[in-house]
Structures are given as structure tokens and as C-alpha cells.
Amino acid sequence: MSDEHQNKKREQMEKYSTNDEGKMTTNQGQKVSEDEFSLKAGERGPTLMEDFHFREKITHFDHERIPERAVHARGFAAHGVFQPYESMEEYTDAGFLKDPAKETPVFVRFSTVAGSKGSSETVRDVRGFATRFYTDEGNFDLVGNNIPVFFIQDAIKFPDLIHAVKPEPHTGMPQAASAHDTFWDFVANNQESAHMVMWAMSDRAIPRSFRMMEGFGVHTFRLVNAKGEAHFIKFHWKPALGTHSLVWDEAQKLSGKDADFHRGDLIEAIENGDYPEFELGVQIIKEEDEFKFDFDLLDPTKIWPEEEVPVKIIGKMTLNRNVDNVFAENEQVAFHPGNVVKGIDFTNDPLLQGRLFSYTDTQLNRFGSANWHELPINKPVCPFHNNQRDGFMRQTINKGQVSYHNNSLADNKPEPAAEEEGGYVHYQEKIDGHKIRARSDSFKDHFSQATLFWNSMSDVEQDHITNAFSFELGKCQSSSVQQQVVDMLANISLELAQNVAGNIGAREPQSGGSNVTKSSPALSMMNTKFKPNTRKVAVIIDDDFNGEDLMSVVNDLKAEGIQPEFISDKLGVKKAKDAGEAQVDHTFLTADSVLFDAVYVVGGENITKEFFTTANNFINEAYSHYKPIGATHKGVKWLENNRIIGKAGVVTSDDMKEFASQFKDAVAAHRHWDREMVYVEL
């Protein structure tokens, strides 16, 4: 082929690969008239399968990354059981919710969203909280997050969101972080994200552990009873240990010190018999009350404030067994929000409607076959019979000549089950609307609940949110993106917007704010449960410590479920000056203050300068993260040198019973925020 001919061909290809008009098209070249809304039967109706643009867009996205999950790649899981406290027969025909004597096996996977499989676990991010119930009537998957709302209102925008939050394509950076231009450009220009980013910039996005975070079904579902009566429903998981978080500096350091911190915490708790527990709660709204609220029940960017719609606690989940094989269970589990049982049904939430399609396509991509349901971790505990056959990874050996319905050769087996035989019947919701790409006006308020969230935060939590926005936007290179986000924040809180602007050098908005004055105390983590159970305490010791007193304190702490671990300069045994000895668990090289919830300074009689300096750094870092600090005997002198005696959460005493009691209370408090702005002399 001549050079001239090659050049003409190249010019022709470039011509067809360039859209000079800048208009969006499908991959087939059809110009797209709308890219914000999926095609629905009426503004609040269900998404239609004939929406070829949505299906092409979401299908392409689902197949962009192999073989790890496109999102939620970094996660870990455990087995357990669920048992209801009472029968929910009034609301649902789901068998596992009707019998308080019935234990249902569960499998739960916790995860980050944005990072790849090899990323750190303590990054600022949403956490997935996916639960599979292996019920006698089939698998029910509650595929949720630790935040009750989401960034977008319609699933057609999910590829856009994830494209924006993933590493920027021209550099592949940053990994597992939202502190970059494309994410915040998306937020500023898709302001339905306003409520979600308030949660994401709060301490909820850096949980202390999987065991200490809430879980939410996010979407509005339906519960349907045996009479066919339906109620709108939202699912909640409430952790028995309360909802607690890391501080940002601590979270960053943990990423380097122990990228597997959260999975290690979960594994260790179960191995120790400290089984994580979560109570299942539901918010219930009658169908006739659908339009009685100042938010749309189908909008996934909205919560139902607990003060308006109380959470009814209906059961408890206990995680009591670690996985046997990470790949076979944690990686091969295939959750799907469309896996429901009778008595649980969907609503027309446009984000949920899209997920019902997308998850099937995603699993097809991950496994290369429709037979993922035959893998042990995905297989239901009840028998299953249908006419599906063959395909990659097929394990079932189907017998007989018939694989179709209707048939006479096998007496029409398997046959559909009637409703009274347990057959699933979709709720008969009346649908009457024009096919339309639009969003209901009731979805257009993007800021009221963002302000509600801000109003509900304590002063400390508001400071942390301000700092989080300042950090994230401070990492952005585009001053235009920074300014756009600041201007958006002015719709939520003028004070927030001005403080962030001042921190990043943007123009401070002079007008804005919100007329919303409501708050929801349930949203503040300051109102959570505070327990010392399973908290880890670093006990710093050296030779010639007071053995009798130390063992008295350690035993008292263990009796409260607190876990002391001994730290020194070297591994081995440290001898007490009176009687006894202590086996060192970690050295200063293998441990760090960020790996513990509190510090107890014991010391010894002949501490070297090097030991003291290293231990002092350990103590000061823990203090700067607002953690409890305790000291007895020689350790008290160390805290006097640091001038922190008498500060919030600092406990000292030579009366061992009194010390143990006060230190236990300090540990239960989790953090001591009264230290804000206290100077620590190093």
C-alpha cells in the first residue's frame, strides 16, 4: 500500500473518530438526547429494559476491569448467623423474619469502594456492607454501604461517578483516594452528590473497624405480607460496639504501618471469640403515607430521619467464623441486590432499578459464565431446580432428556410454584406513565439534607468535615474546580464554605447559607454507644517493673473485655522487680501507637535514654490522636515531663483498683476531644 493511500486512510479514520459537533452518541453513532436520566414509565416509574443507551453505557462500564471487581475490590468477609427478635409476619412473608427461634446462616463482606484489590484499607472512602442470608427459601442479598445515601440518583450516572473517582487516566493516580480534580469536578457539576460528600468528608468515611460501623441498605425496598399488603422499608445495621472512627492523621499513618488493618482486626476479633454483633433495624412507612414527607422516598440521596421515622430493631447478626480460603469465599462471592425472597420486593428507586441489571452483567464479566451460583459460597442452602443448562464452569450433572417448559415427557417438571406454595409474586404496583427520560421535581432538592447533616454534627465533627474538604480540595490542581466546590458548599453552610475557602486560598462566598434549621441527633457519632470491649491497649514496660500491681491492672482490664499487649525495646521476657514476669508481644519496631486504642505506661527502674525517647514518641503520637493515656509508678514521671498530667483522658494513680476503674472509663470513651488545640511538649 502506497504512503499516499495510507495517509488518506488514516485521515478518513480520524475523521470518523472525531465528533466535530461535540455531541454525545452511543457506540453505534446514534446521537444521545439525554445522559442524566434512564428511560422510565413516568417520572417516578420503573426503568425500562428497552433503554438501549443505559444498557450500553452500564454494560461497557461493567466490563472495563477484569478480573477484580470494578468497585469494592478491596474487601474481607466472615461467616455468621442471624436470628430475629420477634415475628415480622405483620409486614412480610419472608420466612427468615417470621420465626424468632430460627437461625439463618449469613456471609458478610466489608469493603472499600474506590481502591484496587491491593490498596490500603484505612483510606477515606465509603465502605461496602454486603450481607447474604442463606434462607430456606433462597438467598437474600442485602448489598449496602456504611453510609445511608449515595452520590447519584439514577444508575445511568454510575459509570460517570466511578470514572471520576478512580485514578485519573492520564497518570493512574491517586490510588484509592478522592482527593483529585476529576472527582471534585464531578461533584461540583453533579450537585445531587452534595449530601453524600458531607457524609464522605465526615469521620464516617474512616471507620475504626468493620465491627464499629453502621450498615445501610441505602435504597427503599418493600416488605409484603401474606395478604399482599406492602410497606416501604429501609434496612439498618447497628453495631453492638457503637459507631467509631479513626482520626485522619491516624488513618493515613495506618495505611503505611498496616494496609490490612481492618481485615486483621476482624480476623483477630473472631479468633479471640469477640464475635462482632450487629442488630438489624427497619424503618417502615405505610404506602398511604408515601407523599407525607419533605423528601421523596425513592430518592437514594435522601435519608429518612430517625426522629421522623424511628428504627425498629428486629434481630441480631453475629459473625462467628473466619473464611477458610480468601479466594474461594471472599473473592468468589457474587452478591446481587436482585437476590430476594418472597416478602421482600423492590421500589422504583432509579438507582436500585439500574443495579438490578448491572450486577448480573458484572458477575458475568467477573466469572466468564452464568454458573457462578454453583460455586460453594454462592450456592443456596435450599434445593434449586430449573431448565438452565451447560456453560463454562457447569458443575451440576443434570439427568434426563428434558430441559424446557412446558413439557409432557417429564410430567411438566420442574413446574412453577403457586403463591400459596411459596412461589415469588411481584407486588402488583399500578404503573401508568409516558415513556420519558426525566427526573421527578421531588428529586431536585440537593441541599436540604446536606444541611441537616451539617446541623446534626458536634463542633468537633464539623471541624473534621471542614478539614476533610480542605485536604481534599487542597490536593486539586484546578483552581476552577476548587472554587466551584466552595460555591456549592455555600448552599449547605456559608460558614463551612468560607472556612474551606480560607484554607485553600479560594474566594470566600459572601452570600448563601440555608434556611434549614432541623437536626437529627442520630446522625452524630457523639451519640453512639461507648464500650471498652475489644479495645487494644499498648502496655509499655521494661525490666524491674512492679509485677504485682501490673498484673492486678491487666486482670481488671481483661475482665472488661479490654486487650492489653506488652511493648518494649526487645522481644522476650521482662522481669518484675518484685515477682513475676511479662512476655513482650511487640517491639517499638513492630508496633506503633496507631495500631492501638490506648496506651498504659508502666516503665521500669533503669530506663535508657534511647528507650525513653522512643517510648515518648509513641505516647505523644497517641496523645495527639486523642487516645486515652494511663500511667502508674515510674510511668507517671514520663507524663509529667510531657506536661499532660490532668489533661482529658489522661489517668494516673498508684491505687491500682482506682486506676483500673478510671482507665477503663477513659478507654470506653474512645477519644478525648477536649484536647483539641492543646500543645504537647515533645
Describe this structure in words.
With 682 residues, the chain is an alpha+beta fold. The protein folds into three domains: 40-181 and 190-197 and 204-374, Beta Barrel (Catalase HpII,  Chain A, domain 1), CATH 2.40.180.10; 447-526, Catalase, four-helical domain (Hemocyanin, N-terminal domain, Up-down Bundle); 530-675, Rossmann fold (3-Layer(aba) Sandwich). It has 17 helices and 20 strands. Strands 2, 3, 4, 5, 6, 7, 8, 9, 10 and 11 form a ten-stranded antiparallel β-sheet that branches. A six-stranded parallel β-sheet has the order 17-14-13-18-19-20, with helices on both faces. Strands 1-12 form a two-stranded antiparallel ribbon. Helix 11 crosses helix 13 (494-504), helix 12 (479-489) packs antiparallel against helix 13 and helix 14 (547-559) packs parallel to helix 17. Residues 677-682 have low confidence and may be disordered.
Mean pLDDT: 92
Write down the CATH topology of the largest domain.
Answer: Catalase HpII,  Chain A, domain 1
N/C terminus separation:
75 Å
Total count of strands: 20
Shape: globular
Q: Give me the CATH architecture of the largest domain, please.
A: Beta Barrel
Major β-sheet, in short?
A: 10 strands, antiparallel
Helix run count: 17
Q: Return residue spans where pLDDT drops below 50 for at least 5 consecutive residues.
A: 677-682
Q: How helix-rich are the residues, as a percent range?
A: 25-40%
CATH superfamily of the largest domain: Catalase core domain
What is the domain total for the residues?
3
> Can you identify the CATH class of the largest domain?
Mainly Beta
